[in-house]
Write a structure and sequence with these properties.
eight-stranded mixed sheet, Rossmann fold, 4 domains, about 25% strand, 32 strands, nine-stranded mixed sheet, alpha/beta, FAD/NAD(P)-binding domain
Length: about 575
């Protein structure tokens, strides 16, 4: 654990030179003073055989050491837009230890007005300083960037392959030795696809020897600008086009709540035919509540699930921005006692870019309020929806056959994803139902959404108050729950406590023993996305993005250790370890 908690230390920049920023920590420039964009094209794009290398490819992944200002990303994106295959998807997986802030990146991009549109779109999604992978998706161009914000060796250990091309663009080897070590070269080799190519500006002897020792064929090439030479390298083997979908047919998604909607959205961005099985008139389960709050899961720890859920919150916030049904506004958390107040103050110090402790309350400045059904409907879009009751499936070498409850085969698919909320328990026994109720009161709404164990926020012309948490299936809304809400708001929102209830709602959430979602593969053609509890809208979009990337042969979205702690096998593995300890 570092003094910066979950955040990376930001880049320290020197802007004294007209040619662009210089890293004060490393005494080196971010790009060539002569023409940084043309340097990107010569040293990285053309050196890696682009755009020819991605011709005819369904998936192509570029790895980068040193995201820096993002100039290489913009140059790559521009070339991809001009030359991409009709059904292609491009992933850039980059590493950055000291991220720039949005204002500094915008200042750097100002030197290339020809990149203005792309720069604006990148800046609109510019990530926070959170450690670990941060995902940015640009579906209009079938392009995504994942920035692993961490030390280079730690980041590479959390990535998976295969990577088709590498941009080695760290600061000069004599000023940033960690980026150019033998373990780094070895790991790059392990992650490389057959025929993968490397481009870099340096010709330092130990870099040439290190890449060769890792297994690359290395050659010098004419350099860019004042640099006389540069390096290119090739990983052995013949390039092979790949797709994670080994059978014909659509991807079938069971469940029309936020998990299913997030999957449909991610699949549609890649041009993957999808069939959504679920009621066509309304979202499923708890995704049909009158209103909800978007807030991060707060925990003072630097652990895989904390990094993943914070990154998921940031991703969801970016995804919902500007969408119908989402309202960006601070959310206020009121402490229930002095102990919780002290905890909130510590959390605000731990996550100062997301939280603020002021006037004895925790302000979640990046929070929001949303209308669940409108967000879900927007993500689902025009997807093919089929309203029938799923019974069972049969997987084989030619795909997955889906049967209804009468035993009739209704669909043949390439892959099946279970995203059915609490009904996912039929596929994963560690998922269980958790019932909840809310009520909408007539009366004055708080200036901002507020929570204190319960929560209150605007919902249409009224104020929603929630929510109860009970094991088991949902029951009809009842007077007991309404009375508990009146008691809860009597102290915090006394004017509201006297109001008439205009709407009552009950639903059921999907919960797990450790209160973390379940996301991953259950078999060759079967996967699951469920168990979100009350945090589906905060966590489902990123986990859906990761699962779809795995299904379709794409690149890393989550860190490897996060995939383990959120994976569907974790509970069985824990029981096996416990049984072994008991018998041992």
């Amino acid at each position: 654990m570092t003094p910066d908690g979950l955040y990376c230390q930001p880049a320290l920049l020197d802007w004294s030179a007209e040619s662009g920023p210089r890293a004060r920590d490393y005494g080196d420039v971010y790009f060539s003073a002569e023409d940084g964009l043309e340097e990107t094209r010569a040293v990285f794009l053309r050196a890696c055989g682009l755009p020819d290398a991605w011709a005819g490819r369904r998936n192509y992944t570029v790895g980068e050491l040193g995201f820096g200002t993002g100039l290489n990303a913009l140059g790559l994106w521009q070339l991809w837009r001009e030359t991409r295959p009709d059904d292609g998807w491009l992933d850039l997986v980059s590493i950055e230890k000291h991220p720039l802030d949005r204002a500094s990146a915008a200042r750097a991009f100002a030197a290339w007005p020809q990149l203005g549109e792309l720069a604006g779109r990148l800046l609109a999604q510019w990530p926070s300083r959170l450690k670990g992978p941060q995902r940015l998706v640009f579906p209009e161009d079938r392009f995504a960037i994942t920035i692993f914000q961490d030390e280079v060796e730690a980041a590479l250990a959390q990535m998976d392959g295969p990577v088709d091309a590498w941009f080695l663009d760290g600061f000069a080897p004599d000023r940033n030795a960690a980026m150019w070590s033998q373990p780094v070269f070895n790991r790059i080799g392990e992650l490389s696809a057959p025929g993968a190519r490397i481009g870099t500006f340096t010709v330092a002897g130990f870099v040439r020897r290190g890449l060769a020792e890792a297994g690359f064929s290395v050659a010098k090439r004419p350099g860019f600008g004042r640099k006389r030479e540069r390096l290119e390298a090739i990983w052995p083997g013949e390039t092979v086009a790949r797709s994670g979908l080994q059978a014909a047919g659509p991807v079938a998604v069971i469940g029309a709540g936020i998990a299913g909607a997030s999957l449909v959205h991610a699949l549609a961005a890649r041009g993957i035919e999808t069939v959504l099985i679920g009621a066509a008139d309304a979202p499923g389960g708890a995704s049909n509540a009158p209103a909800g709050l978007l807030t991060p899961r707060l925990e003072k720890a630097d652990r895989p699930h904390v990094r993943a859920t914070m990154a998921a919150f940031d991703f969801a916030r970016r995804l919902y921005e500007g969408r119908d049904g989402f309202h960006a506004e601070p959310v206020i958390r009121l402490p229930r006692d002095a102990r919780e107040a002290a905890r909130f103050a510590v959390l605000a110090d731990w996550l100062p870019d997301h939280l603020d402790w002021q006037d004895d309350r925790l302000v979640i400045s990046c929070g929001g309020r949303f209308e669940p059904s409108r967000l879900v409907s927007g993500l689902i879009g025009a997807c093919d929806r089929q309203d029938w009751q799923f019974g069972h499936h049969e997987a084989g070498g030619d795909g997955v056959r889906l049967f209804d409850r009468d035993g009739v085969c209704r669909l043949e698919a390439a892959h099946l994803v279970i995203a059915a909320g609490a009904a996912s328990q039929a596929f994963h026994g560690d998922i269980s139902p958790s019932a909840g109720q809310v009520a909408v009161f007539e009366g004055p709404a708080p200036a901002s959404p507020v929570s204190w164990g319960h929560y209150a926020c605007r919902a249409g012309d009224g104020v929603l108050v929630g929510a109860t948490h009970l094991r088991g299936e949902a029951a009809a809304p009842d007077d007991e729950a309404e009375a508990s809400f009146r008691t809860a708001i009597a102290e915090r929102l006394p004017d509201l406590a006297l109001g008439r209830v205009t709407e009552r709602w009950s639903g059921v959430r999907a919960s797990t023993p450790d209160r973390l979602p379940v996301a991953g593969m259950l078999g060759d053609r079967l996967s699951i996305l469920s168990g979100f509890g009350s945090r589906g809208f905060a966590h489902a979009p990123l986990l859906a993005e990761d699962l779809v990337s795995r299904i379709t042969g794409g690149a890393s979205v989550l860190a490897a250790d996060a995939r383990v702690v959120l994976g569907p096998q974790r509970f069985a593995e824990r029981r096996a370890r416990k049984a072994g300890q008991t018998t041992g």
